[in-house]
Design brief:
GO terms for molecular function: phosphatidylinositol-4,5-bisphosphate 5-phosphatase activity. This is Inositol polyphosphate-related phosphatase domain-containing protein. This protein is of the alpha+beta class and 865 residues long. The protein folds into three domains: 223 residues, no CATH class; 148 residues, YVTN repeat-like/Quinoprotein amine dehydrogenase (Methylamine Dehydrogenase, Chain H), CATH 2.130.10.10; 327 residues, Deoxyribonuclease I, Chain A. Helices cover 16% and strands 30% of the residues. A hairpin with a 2-residue loop joins β2 and β3. α2 packs across α10 and α4 crosses α13. The radius of gyration is 37 Å and the shape is elongated.
Length: 865
């Protein structure tokens, strides 16, 4: 193989070219260019060939070459072509910049965007503003007033319309009208095809709106159904015979979109803004007749997507800006228009909410607050409008965030505001406290949107009950008890629990410690380290349940250790509950040490058994139960909830365990919440997510109502359990200067720090805080964080948390704590409970009659019947 090389030149190489700084050339515009604007471009016409010199392009450079400025000792070219840059009016051309070889390139432009922490803070703030749902009853308020179930009624979503009166249900879909009588059969009593109706020029009409016509004769109520059609025709159907009793062809020039009943009048509306008011004469005893009653015409804005009679006035809104709907996001909106259609000559009023909201989807009036209108919006808000004002114009007085998704349907029922959302849930809110409290929240339509919520105002008269019906995207119609009688009975049974239950005491010991990745073999040296586990286990005599909850058992900053836990943590338990060898040895070592400590500290004739072990990226829970109690355990389960990185990572989160003793359900949460002195909202959001997480555990398999659980729950959520213990590194801090805190600790004035405790502040002042219903023992010890290891010297900012006792084991930067509880478990005597329940139901019937009378009077006052 041959090789050749060039000899090194004897003269030094030329110096590199000097770097040239950016140069901006902005030639001054000529006087002519300032005095007169640039000429307009010529109109396009027939192309005229013009002699144009050929374009000259610079030679293409090969890879690795660069365009260089001439050397200082190199003569410039004799001719330098001048490039005339086009000017725009009197504005100079954009600046130019020349970049030499090895010059630093300018920084790339970055799009302005808010920091993730700011956006997350806004999300956490929204969570705080949501209604408190921690104690809502999840039991569906089913109603049993029909002889046959409504489950077989099919309601095509978005393309059908429904009207209900007592047992009668009418469903119209395009050409088909089905009439059901649930007192007779679950099958339709009439199945009408409009193409076979036998009406001249009206065959094949498509129904777009329906409502039952009012009648003075009580026996005729719910017998005549008005139909609005796509071509603007109005029809009256006698549901007793299944025939068309009257027709008003092309009463509207466009499709009829809405139909309302108000006292003895009927109101129809089309999408072009034409409203027809059919009202009898004031002194007439005749009912409204479709043919003989002359309607009065009212003009409103067209294409109104939302329309409803509220307080005797027609409230409308649309998302179309041209039709008076939502406006630009920088302004308040959407526009709500209110019309007094029953007062001739009156004009509509345009209203704006106090802030920009999503489109209006629904509206209602609460019987308990008849002077206010509640409007539901996309985006999860409810706007509240005061009807009684000085000028008589409704005014928006408040906007409440009730959901993270859209409010699709809204209805005022008794003293509760019912709202349906996209997840298929219906929530009933108590709107008096701030924030609102969700007293009921149940799955109504299998995780699909609740499209409609309506009170059947005639149900009191025809059924002796107040029924509400909902229609979902699952194309089902469901009936509900508007007075929530099941919840009333449950609450009364709790008050009389002592009459059908026996009780006994159970002792619970909870030990919590942030280990800061300390190993059990480091518990050496001082007596506090050596005796820590024994001292904690003997802090209460003869505990029946022992729950250890550790945090940061592994080094969370070690990626290798965290990844190993994530990959293998789900396969950590053997059938007997022991820790698998595949998981990090740190968990196995602590598990073995805890088993040994319990065995050594407790009497040998009262052995304990591990019923729960679980880990989650540093979290570790191990729960022991005395063998004599183990035989009474039921529904044993354990799971994890991740809260780190938006719920994708388990460095923050909780381990949730539960079981049932006798007829009392118990839940343990070992958690590690968001860190940071000022991240209170993130910690609050972590708590809310764990307490309100759906389907944490499998549902109870009880055939009858699950007596061990509360709030109408089935045991699948944390707060379904009667007793909940929460421990862990919750990271709430002391909100004060370090020198003040250190001085108070040194002086032994621990109580003076409690006023600055973030957790106690949230429990006292934040009405939306999900731990407000929890109780914490008196704090009589110094803050447990943060220490230098193997010392009693505080390191950085401190926090105080959890109950009763702290220990001085110093192998971690935290100090361990423990809490002992004496709790009561119940055992239900089923026959005695059934007897008491019968008495409670009898009392409810009396109370229900009083509520029905009040609701009936409200419907009369509002001209809804």
């Amino acid at each position: 193989m041959r090789a050749s090389h060039s000899p090194r030149p004897s003269i030094p190489p030329p110096r590199p070219p000097p770097r040239h700084k950016s140069s901006v050339q902005a030639p001054s515009p000529s006087l002519a260019s300032v005095a007169s604007p640039p000429p307009l471009p010529a109109r396009r016409g027939t192309a005229t060939p013009v002699d144009e010199p050929p374009r000259r392009f610079p030679p293409r450079m090969h890879d690795g070459e660069a365009s260089l400025q001439p050397h200082a000792n190199t003569a410039p070219p004799t001719t330098s072509p001048t490039i005339d840059r086009k000017t725009f009016g009197h504005h100079p051309p954009p600046p130019t910049r020349t970049i030499g070889l090895n010059d630093k390139l300018p920084a790339a432009r970055r799009q302005a965007s808010g920091s993730s922490s700011e956006s997350e803070e806004e999300e956490f703030k929204k969570v705080e503003l949501l209604p408190d749902m921690t104690r809502s009853s999840r039991r569906p308020p089913v109603v049993d007033c029909h002889n046959y179930s409504e489950f077989h009624i099919h309601v095509p979503a978005y393309t059908s319309t429904v009207a209900v009166s007592g047992h009668t249900v009418a469903v119209a879909h395009h050409h088909h009208i089905k009439i059901y009588d649930l007192s007779v059969s679950e099958a339709p009593v009439w199945n009408i095809d409009s193409r076979d109706a036998g009406l001249d020029k009206l065959n094949g009409f498509k129904v777009t709106a329906m409502e039952f016509r009012p009648t003075l004769n009580a026996t005729d109520r719910g017998a005549f159904l008005w139909l609005g059609c796509k071509d603007g025709t109005l029809l009256e159907l006698d549901i007793r015979s299944g025939t068309i009793a009257a027709a008003k062809p092309v009463a509207h020039a466009h499709a009829v979109t809405h139909m309302f009943r108000h006292a003895r009048a009927m109101v129809t509306m089309d999408d072009a803004g034409k409203v027809l008011v059919f009202a009898p004469e004031p002194d007439s005893t005749d009912d409204v007749h479709l043919v003989y009653t002359q309607p009065r015409v009212v003009r409103i804005a067209d294409k109104q997507e939302f329309a409803k009679l509220l307080g005797g006035q027609l409230w409308t809104s649309t998302r179309d800006p041209n039709g008076g709907g939502s406006v630009a996001s920088t302004s308040r909106g959407p526009i709500v228009r209110v019309y007094d259609v029953f007062s001739p000559g009156s004009t509509g009023r345009s209203l704006l909410p106090t802030e920009h909201l999503g489109a209006v989807t629904s509206g209602t009036i609460l019987p308990s607050q008849p002077d206010k209108v509640f409007l539901g919006h996309e985006g999860g808000h409810v706007s509240i409008w005061q009807l009684v004002t000085k000028d008589g114009i409704p005014m928006c007085e408040e906007v409440v965030k009730v959901s993270t998704s859209d409010v699709l349907s809204l209805e005022g029922v008794n003293d509760r505001l019912w709202a349906g959302g996209r997840s298929g849930m219906i929530s009933a809110f108590d709107v008096v406290p701030r924030p609102w409290v969700a007293t009921n929240c149940w799955q109504a339509h299998t995780k699909l949107p609740v499209l409609k919520l309506t009170v059947d105002t005639w149900s009191i008269e025809r059924l002796g009950r107040l029924t509400v019906y909902s229609i979902g995207r699952d194309e089902k119609l469901r009936f509900w008890d508007g007075l929530l009688g099941t919840q009333w009975v449950d609450q009364e049974l709790i008050k009389r629990e002592a009459e059908f239950s026996t009780f006994r005491a159970v002792k619970v010991l909870v030990v919590s410690w942030n280990l800061d990745s300390a190993k059990p073999e480091t518990l050496t040296g001082t007596p506090e380290n050596i005796n820590f586990l024994n001292d904690a286990l003997k802090s209460v005599d003869d505990p029946d349940i022992i729950a250890f909850g550790f945090q940061e058992l592994i080094d969370l900053e070690s990626r290798k250790m965290a990844a190993k836990t994530v990959l293998l943590g789900g396969k950590n338990k053997t059938p007997d509950g022991a820790i698998s060898q595949k998981v990090s040895t740190s968990y196995k070592k602590w598990y073995d040490r805890l088993v040994l400590a319990v065995k050594m500290a407790m009497p040998p004739d009262e052995p304990y058994t591990v019923i729960h072990t679980e880990n989650l990226v540093g979290l570790f829970s191990c729960i022991f139960v005395k063998n004599t109690e183990r035989i009474s355990l039921k529904h044993v389960a354990i799971t994890t909830i991740k809260r780190g990185m938006g719920g994708r990572y388990g460095n923050k989160g909780g381990i949730v365990a539960r079981f049932v003793i006798d007829d009392t359900s118990i839940c343990f949460i070992n958690c590690h919440l968001a860190a940071g002195q000022h991240h209170v909202r993130q910690r609050n959001a972590d708590v809310a997510a764990m307490l309100e997480e759906k389907s944490v555990f499998p549902e109870s398999d009880a055939v009858e109502e699950p007596l061990a659980y509360v709030n109408g729950g089935d045991g699948s959520m944390v707060l379904d359990h009667e007793v909940v213990f929460m421990n862990g590194d919750m990271n709430y801090r002391i909100e004060h200067r370090r020198d003040f805190v250190a001085g108070a600790i040194k002086a032994g004035e621990i109580e003076s720090l409690l006023a600055y405790d973030q957790l106690l502040r949230e429990m006292k002042n934040n009405r939306a805080f999900r731990l407000r219903s929890f109780m914490e023992g008196p704090i009589t010890f110094a803050p447990t964080y943060k220490y230098d290891r193997r010392s009693n010297e505080y390191d950085t900012s401190e926090k105080a948390r959890l109950h009763y006792l702290r220990y001085e084991a110093n192998v971690s930067d935290h100090r361990p704590i423990s809490a002992a509880f004496r709790m009561t478990v119940k055992s239900v005597q089923h026959e005695a409970r059934a007897h008491v329940k019968g008495e409670v139901i009898a009392r409810w019937k009396q109370h229900e009659r009083a509520l029905l009378e009040a609701c009936h009077q409200f419907f009369v006052d509002q001209a809804m019947i």
